[in-house]
Chloride channel protein
Amino acid sequence: MSEDSNLLKESTSMNETMVEEVEERDPESNPLNEPLLKRNRTLSSNPLALVGAKVSYIESLDYEINENDLFKQDWRSRSRAQVLQYIFWKWTLAFLVGLLTGVIATLINLAVENIAGYKLLAVVSFIQNERYLTGFFYFTGINFILTFVAAILCVCFAPTAAGPGIPEIKAYLNGVDTPNMYGATTLIVKIIGSIGAVSAGLDLGKEGPLVHIGSCIASLLGQGGPDNYRIKWRWLRYFNNDRDRRDLITCGASSGVCAAFRAPVGGVLFALEEVATWWRSALLWRTFFSTAVVVVVLRATIELCHKGKCGLFGEGGLIMFDVSDVTVRYNVMDIIPVVIIGVLGGVLGSLYNYLLHKVLRLYNLINQKGKMYKLLLSLSVALFTSICQYGLPFLAKCTPCDPSLSEVCPTNGRSGNFKQFNCPNGYYNDLATLLLTTNDDAVRNIFSTNTPFEYQPSSILIFFALYCILGLITFGIAVPSGLFLPIILMGSGYGRLLGIFMRPHTNIDQGLFAVLGAASLMAGSMRMTVSLCVIFLELTNNLLLLPITMIVLLIAKTVGDSFNPSIYEIILHLKGLPFMDANPEPWMRDLTVGELVDVKPAVISFRGVEKVANIVNALKNTTHNGFPVMDCGVVPTTGVANEATELHGIILRAHLIQVLKKKWFLKEKRRTEDWEVREKFTWVELAEREGNIEDVAVTKEEMEMFVDLHPLTNTTPFTVLESMSVAKAMVLFRQLGLRHMLVVPKYQASGVSPVIGILTRQDLLAYNILTVFPHLVKSKRK
């Protein structure tokens, strides 16, 4: 997770005046129990987080509409044709997101199925000729090379491409900017790395990477391409803002899930339930449209591949575990094993989260030693996986084929439900059927229905134990990886095992037990319910599973929530990303926002017409991204005639830098006319978040000039009274997607500033508040 141990110190030396500090590690403490980044002891607006392999400063995103004079003028001047054009291009981009995600998912599936297929065919050929050692070296060598390609790309070119990318997407849609997560290099490495890692037989899936790939495509389309080669079309620049890019990335995330599982409705619900923080009906329609396009592309590919034009690729890569041919029969007594599966899923899912948490901390210590250690760790896991997948089937006994089965038995091809492996003719190796195949085929085989005697309990037990180990040690290495398929493999293992033992007492098929086991473990680990239920229904193509699937998911999530957070929340916490939860802590109702701003530094504000020197000094000496703009000596239009201080609004750092770059200075202190502003700025330019104060050169003469901030100030900022509880402020902040919240006094006395503080994301996070108000820890425990 971290490039080396000096990155943290280098990052903090960038700005000596920052409030936050990263504490040094205590050599006496256990590093496995420490956070990856020590929390600061003051409220701060510039957190550090691990993004890819680097410690980076994290900023919030401007999802709020900035209603300054330029925006209002632009909105009033838009014709009906321009509004319709804007809406048309929104739908066009949603279509392109779905189309490109579907095409890339198809290419990944084609590559994985053909690479892994030809590899397995060669291994089977060696085994048939009893050249077991040659087959082992060939199998291990190919997997080693494929893992090396995936790992070297992630380590050297795009560290942010490693892992699933879903936690970072959750953080982005929550309002946290994650640097370098959606670039062209990340996209390319994610695609190639996913092909290599999945083809190598590692215990990971392409589902998480496909979500990240869809989000990268959406982000690149929204900004007109990579940073260095952007298309500067006028209509495309309307989407180069945080608000529209958030909607596009939501479409990309739902398209990725749809491409992974061929589940369009499940993809939309996944975006709604798991990754998106802000939602509206128009976004629901566009995400559904994107997923519909993905399904059409995938369906067209399947039809093409059925004609034999895709090599070894068939339905295998486009996951579809069809159990529609099974008549689902259950009675009241069958609720007992269903409840057992749900409880087991919750317990094992929370245990998996706990153990993976410790493994990721251990991996962080290894990764801190440098790139070579990251690479060696990935290759070591690949070697261990290959040895187990090839060697363990030799421990299983050969099982005679059932002549009553309609399927071919035994099989020696790439896929099949009865692998012969080292067995004589007429016999098959059930453990080889599960291990010496692709992960997709392994799930399809263990989900197989109407095969009550296909697998021996010992083989299922070995399979479950192996994938529990692989599921812990594989996630976290420097390759693109997803958690969906490893959890499905683990859950289907204990589900099938329970089905074998419960066979005399239930009417439910063993394959359906495997499906329920996979669903329960996913709910116990990821804590999803509605989206997961729909995804499994679309996967299995059997609506009769709906009642018992719902029961299993609800029980597993309830049990899991009583132990620890979901796996994605744990990863967010590990990386230090300031994710704002939906539910505030109960003790937050005992604290007011006025008490929070009292422990913060004084607010830095500007006058409506401000001196250039004051603006430059504020930008260079602080890291604030928003500054209140106030006018003194204003006579209110209503009420008493006494002069008062008017809160004109709030101005963003990015807009101030634009002013300095364009040299929009006045020699005398005065307010500007509307035409002067429109001549220099456009609303589209102000929507972009580019520029750095260090890149701006201002002469001594210019320092004495003035700037009229009124036209660029957001005149409708969200304000709250100082008496509001932190819990209520947090809910408001999250639901509206704010970056700044102004705190105003309850009583406005003469000479008192109309703004007593500004709250940001960092100020409303529970762990930051508890460091400043430690007495609240006791009430938290209660």
User: Anything to note?
Assistant: Confidence is low (pLDDT under 50) at residues 1-34. The two ends are 35 Å apart (CA to CA).
